[in-house]
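Ticket #4471: complex job returned nothing on first submit. Input attached below:
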Amino acid sequence: MTDKNKILDKDGFETMYLNMGPQHPSTHGVLRLGLVLDGEVILKADPDIGYLHRGMEKLAERRTYQANIAMSDRYDYVCSMNNNFAVALAIEKLLGVEAPKRAQYIRVIMAELNRVVNHMVFFGFFAMDVGATTALMFGFREREPVIELFESVSGARLTYNYFRVGGVARDLPSDFVEKTKVFIKFMRAKLIDYDRLVTDNVIFRDRTVGIGKFSKEDCMSYSLSGPVARASGINYDVRKDDTYSVYNEFDFNVPTLEGGDCFDRYMLRMLELRESLKIVEQALEKLEPGDIMAKVPKVIKPPVGEAYVRTESPKGELSVYLVSDGTANPYRFHLRAPSFINLQILQKALAGFKVADVIAILGSIDIVLGEVDR
Amino acid sequence: MNLSYGLERLWLWLVGLLEKLISWLGLPYIFAYTLEKIIFAVALLVFISVSVLYLIWLERKVSAHMQSRLGPMHVGGWRGWAQTIADMVKLLFKEDIIPAKADKWVHRIAPLVVFIPSLMGFLVIPFEKNLIAQDLNAGILLIFAFSSIAVLAIIMGGWASNNKYTLLGGIRSAAQMISYEIPLVLSVVSVIMLVGSFKLNDMVAAQSGAGKVWFVFTQPLAFLLYLIAATAEVNRTPFDIPEAESELVSGYNTEYSGLKYGFFMLSEFTNMLIVSLVAATVFLGGWSAPSWLSRVPGIVILLVKTYFIVFVLMWIRWTFPRLRVDRLMDFGWKILIPLAFINIFVTALVMAVWRKPTKILRIIKERLLVIL
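Support reply: We reran it on our side without changes. The output follows.
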């Protein structure tokens, strides 16, 4: 058959080449994994990406700046608000404008609510990956009220396109604040249930504790960021360390865990979710009436120059590098996609584990293929 | 206790009538006997298929309500009761795909090999004292013997499909079902010791009547071991690694479609039913009931107990994650089997002391004297 079949195991027997994906229930989209198996043990893993490549960075060069915010919804379709945030900030940095205070708070509320959505989706899918089906439904059930909130402000349920250069598209509906407060209360109550259902489950712990350990050095050398790095003991969060927008006004912790295994990565996201709720609560208190849009020209033509903006998306450090040549379209648009960079460690992490662990490790990195392939 | 109500009385009346008819016709008794068995088998088959269709619907409803969903609601009107029938009709009409490089005959036979043995176990289940197809004196052994044939079919299906996922699923199931067969049988051994018979009717008799309690109270550990091993035996979460959806797509039945897939699914639920029936009969008193319930037909009592066990199995399935394959083997060999042996040993010890205390004491005294 193929050459890959010729890898022998330590006793000199032939190994099996298992082509996992791109069509597989739990490769989170269209990731392809070429696994060389010795029984159930993985000798070599070959992640293969590119099945969802849409050439977004090139497409960006033919679009106006505002249209690029609309397109950013499609990078990581689970947390579109955070993508909007990064792109809007980059364009504003080029233009040299700043959004009014109210818009800044609204942006933070949206970004943090979207972090809750992302971690809820992660919770569901990760539990599903290790075999607990019920948690998936619960994760999506809790996502629903937030999606409804987003729908009430933007009119869409997945691709919001809510951020504008210099502000946000619409002001909040009158009942938004109240509904969000109800949701926060509801979410806090539900988190206790989840700890009982999943976190404290013996089998769940057995499946995740000690599986797929990333050492601190590995995280550094692979340039991992976000929850994956923080679970390995790297205390790095762009919101704190290179603060943007109004994040410096809020009182929140950056949880860090030391283990670096699948369980810690899961646990860290659950802790982070609680911090996000805290930030939303504070932002709701600080919300005051005012403008939601800064003065921006109708046709956005930033001066010649470049801008680099880092933000903390739920998946990790999401950065946008933007070069302007003075026309209405960007000259170069580059995205540092956290899913793509976090995925790199997979090849090293998988060797020596079992087939069932592949899914757990992949799930715990929390990738979205829309962002990996762009 | 007067238990001959309802179905049992009807059955005995029918048998009597049949025997009279045959003797009036001047034919030997063997004809009456054969006819009885055929009628019973057909009735049993109808009961099994209806129960299994109902079980599939129930599973979907239970899972839906646990996940705050509604589940099937439309087909058939009331709560989507006809959903499974519609699904089965759909499966009938689906294209039957055999992979090009599959081992065609083995691929075709595997669904039958899994389905037919799963029906055989019902032969020895007493639905009421006389409502039993054949009260074999090796009753419970027959059930375990037939349930272990299923592993053959899973390996056949997994191997013949010529697909790596099915192969992994088949090999996993071979390892799993062989290792969980042992605690399954061992957990019942202690009950067999107490009863002194393999007949399921004797086991029911040992639990019914004044001063006797269900074995679930006298043998709680055995019941627990049985339930765990049975869950593994019927490949349900947390032991569903042969078909682990998130890892192996659909495990051994990945390449099956149409009615053949339907057979695999039906046999899964048939196995669940038989495992629950055995649990209800061996540990929960079978068709017998406390005297204040003696007017209720035994078959109803048995089914209530069975469906309770079925519900517990479903409850477990929709709560727990899946074990990993190596941890599963560890759990089976290092925890369940030693516990089963301890249970047998303790039971034997208690029985010996209980039945002949003076003799045991004398033996101990003599031994002690020898040692001293």
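Residues 6-371 of chain B form one domain. Closing as resolved unless it happens again.
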